[in-house]
Write a structure and sequence with these properties.
Elements (H helix, E strand, L loop, with lengths): L1 E7 L2 H12 L4 E8 L2 E8 L14 E2 L10 E2 L3 H12 L4 H11 L9 H12 L12 E5 L6 H14 L4 E6 L6 H9 L7 E3 L2 H13 L3 E5 L8 H14 L1 E8 L4 H13 L4 E5 L8 H10 L2 E6 L8 E3 L2 H8 L5 H4 L5
Parallel strand pairs: 6-9, 6-10, 7-8, 7-9, 10-11, 11-12
Antiparallel strand pairs: 1-3, 2-3, 4-5, 12-13
Helix pairs in contact: 2-3, 2-4, 3-4, 4-11, 5-6, 9-10
Length: 336
């Protein structure tokens, strides 16, 4: 006889999980209430628990006539994924889509993080930037989202990997962006170049390419709802042959974040770096925003430090951060 304990939000939900995994011949041995739900112990005489049914675990065969369609049954694991995303500010429709996409994983795992990761994997793309990019990187984004800090982090990351990359402050609005970038980088101050006009930027990039250097360009803040700002950005992208990468903070209303992501996607942005994961608790809005805009996740900013401040984006890492279950060895793995 094989015995197993099942935890769920209700006795009916637990029984659905039991019969789905152990078969219709499973015997209920005990039931008891615990904080947040119930624990039900069950047993079966079949070695290995019998055949696993073809229905997903969130469908029950309780009280179902032979040949009848399965009756939907609440799945606490699937619901935990949905509820976590909603708590994090993700729109309910997005939360339901992730939960539904991850639900088949319930048949193989009791870990909500794995279920969420499976759901996210179906809806988002992760595409980290290599230490030595194949193209120059043009960092774009709204005011206050951390472009300059990201430029410093990418520069420091490249230096650790022995890659030759040149940090460029495009000080086109005369806000002393070069001084701020220099302050972030400290040891790399001599590497920094400042372009005060578009012509300066074009000439600087031309020289760098002749020297086989890649550049990471810290562009001034752009208001995504200003047509002139966005028009100028689109024109710049078309003439300098650099990849625009959005720097987007987790802070802000989910609808605003969605509008920002769509605006930058329209001018050619295909990847984004997420910032301020270390200072915000509700992070679901930015995930839904990038997913809806078709923008890939490149890196996650999980610490304020310039060294080790970025980690490659991955569904598994993102799910554990959203569930607040990421220990340091997972949250910071691959940091540079």
């Amino acid at each position: 006889m094989r015995m197993k304990m099942f935890a769920a939000e209700s006795v009916e939900a637990a029984k659905a999980m039991i019969f789905a995994e152990m078969g219709d011949d499973a015997i209920i041995l005990s039931e008891r209430e615990v904080p947040g739900g119930v624990e039900v112990r069950a047993a079966t005489d079949k070695l290995g628990g019998g055949m696993v049914p073809s229905d997903p675990r969130f469908l029950t065969r309780l009280n179902r006539p032979v040949g009848a369609a399965p009756r939907p049954q609440e799945n606490p694991l699937r619901n935990r994924v949905r509820d976590a995303l909603i708590w994090h500010g993700a729109p309910q429709r997005f939360a339901e889509r992730v939960a539904d996409a991850g639900a088949p994983m319930c048949a193989r795992s009791q870990d909500p993080a794995e279920i969420m990761a499976s759901g996210l994997d179906a809806l988002i793309t992760c595409d980290p930037i290599p230490p030595m990019p194949t193209r120059d990187i043009l960092l774009v984004g709204p005011p206050g989202h951390g472009r300059t800090a990201v430029a410093a982090k990418l520069t420091r990351r490249a230096a650790v990997a022995k890659a030759k990359i040149l940090p460029v402050a495009a000080d086109l609005d005369a806000t002393a962006g070069g001084a701020q970038l220099a302050a972030y980088l400290e040891l790399e101050q001599k590497q920094i170049r400042v372009a005060k006009t578009p012509d300066d930027l074009f000439n600087l990039l031309k020289t760098a390419r002749q020297n086989s250097e890649r550049c990471v360009i810290d562009l001034p803040a752009i208001v995504p709802f200003d047509e002139e700002d966005m028009g100028n950005l689109e024109q710049l992208i078309s003439v300098i042959d650099a990849e625009p990468v959005l720097v987007l903070s987790t802070e802000g209303h989910p609808d605003d974040l969605a509008d920002i992501a769509r605006a930058f996607a329209r001018v050619g942005v295909r990847r984004a770096i997420i910032t301020k994961l270390d200072v915000t608790r509700r992070r679901g809005g930015v995930v839904a925003a990038l997913s809806g805009a078709g923008i890939a996740f490149a890196h996650l900013g999980v610490t304020p430090f310039i060294g080790g401040g970025l980690v490659p984006a991955a569904p598994g890492r993102l799910s554990r951060i959203l569930l607040e279950e990421a220990p340091a060895d997972i949250a910071l793995r691959g940091a540079a």
